[in-house]
């Protein structure tokens, strides 16, 4: 019985190559399995491209060896299937897309609104969206939107600005520090300012000093 099973298994494995040519559909399937196994647990999506199954390659006496082309397994790449014994090599096109979590609008908001936890949510998106999108809720909450945003929109970094804490003409505290001492003086802001922005402050002497707007509403100068 064991002998019959072994023969049946051998026949199943070699049926497609009985004519002496490599089973191209099986070769593509092996490339897919290799790609998916290599990226298991990474939340990557693998799409295998088109290979002409009419190609006639001599049947490899051992299972063909798979490798990532150039060691690259991101974006548009390929799995190389090779048979060292017979000297052939074929590239199976593969597209690797990784999913990441990005921030999207839970509900519509109007221009000038400050985002709250009820306004935003995390949604999955293609990995290439991470470079231009907000990827953490705490990066969005408390920020101000510069335009009307509809529900479901993925939040791009360029759509946000820090909340304005200083208005032009407002009296502000200019704080100077070098780490060992700190002095402050009152001046007048020369323009509106959001947290992290650099603005000019006119001092009573008429001198203009530039500093960085802090969350407290002061303008900080570091030496």
TrEMBL record:
Major location (coarse): periplasm
Residues in SAF domain copies: 100-161
UniProt record, GO biological process: bacterial-type flagellum assembly
InterPro entries (alphabetical): Flagellar_FlgA, FlgA_N, SAF, SAF_FlgA
SMART domains: SAF
Entry keywords, A to Z: Bacterial flagellum biogenesis, Cell projection, Cilium, Flagellum, Periplasm, Signal
Residues in the signal sequence: 1-18
GO cellular component annotations of the record: periplasmic space
Xref: Pfam families: ChapFlgA, ChapFlgA_N
Subcellular location: Periplasm
Family as reported in the entry's similarity comment: Belongs to the FlgA family.
Stated role: Involved in the assembly process of the P-ring formation. It may associate with FlgF on the rod constituting a structure essential for the P-ring assembly or may act as a modulator protein for the P-ring assembly.
Name of the protein this chain belongs to: Flagella basal body P-ring formation protein FlgA
Organism: Rivihabitans pingtungensis
Source taxonomy: Bacteria, Pseudomonadati, Pseudomonadota, Betaproteobacteria, Neisseriales
């Amino acid at each position: 019985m064991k002998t019959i099973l072994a023969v049946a298994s051998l026949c199943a494995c070699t049926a497609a190559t009985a004519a002496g040519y490599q089973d191209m559909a099986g070769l593509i399937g092996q490339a897919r399995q290799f790609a998916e196994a290599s990226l298991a647990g990474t939340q990557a999506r693998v799409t295998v491209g088109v290979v002409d199954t009419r190609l006639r390659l001599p049947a490899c006496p051992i299972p063909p060896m798979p490798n990532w082309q150039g060691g690259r397994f991101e974006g548009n790449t390929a799995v190389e299937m090779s048979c060292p014994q017979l000297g052939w090599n074929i590239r199976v096109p593969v597209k690797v897309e990784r999913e990441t979590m990005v921030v999207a609008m839970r509900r519509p908001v109007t221009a000038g609104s400050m985002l709250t936890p009820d306004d935003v949510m995390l949604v999955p998106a293609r990995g290439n969206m991470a470079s231009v999108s907000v990827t953490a809720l705490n990066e969005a909450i408390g920020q101000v939107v510069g335009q009307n945003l509809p529900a479901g929109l993925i939040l791009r970094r360029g759509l946000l600005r820090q909340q304005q804490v200083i208005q032009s003409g407002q009296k502000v505290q200019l704080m100077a520090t070098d780490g060992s001492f700190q002095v402050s003086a009152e001046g007048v802001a020369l323009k509106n300012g959001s947290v992290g922005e650099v603005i000019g402050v006119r001092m009573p002497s008429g001198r203009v000093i530039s500093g960085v707007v802090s969350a407290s509403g002061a303008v900080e100068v570091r030496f």
